[in-house]
Amino acid sequence: MLKELLKNKEIILASGSPRRHQFFKDLDIPFKADVRPVKEVHPDYLQKEEITDFLAQLKAEAFQKELKKDQILITSDTIVYNEGNAMGKPATASEAKEMLRSLSGKTHSVFTSVCFTTHNHQSTVNCETKVSFKELTSGEIDYYVENFKPFDKAGGYAIQEWIGLIGITNLEGSYFNVVGLPTHLVYKELIDLA
To answer: Where are the active-site residues found (predicted)?
Structure first.
């Protein structure tokens, strides 16, 4: 359906995430992937979805001056937000394990913002999902990090992997948002832009 509506548009997905690429394929939206390096730093006073809104918009800046009339640029950012702290991607195994220890037995939020930029317009949507983990044992945490190496995942985990299968007890909101994209919002926004 969207493919037909967007036939005169070129979608540029500024993400290297295989999960986001798969979502676009599953939504039957043709796209071109183009990733530009961006220093993902945000002001300290920002909280929750303000952080992901800021970073999604920041990623769009690298493209903004060269967008053509028929192009729609899509940039996004996801964070895990736990006890007032934004958790990005872990740099090391010990950092990933520390992140999982801090999430164990608690409920945290996952925020994703998606920014849509054209040559003359920009809009940003965001989504929050609440995720609850059981008390994870040290053995479970070690096993997951050593076998799945979640270094490209915000908060040090992927809900669709082993740790999510054994550890997540409750979910409030969009599952796909936690995987990395609030697909229902992307669909709605692209219909509006078509």
So the answer is: 77 (proton acceptor)
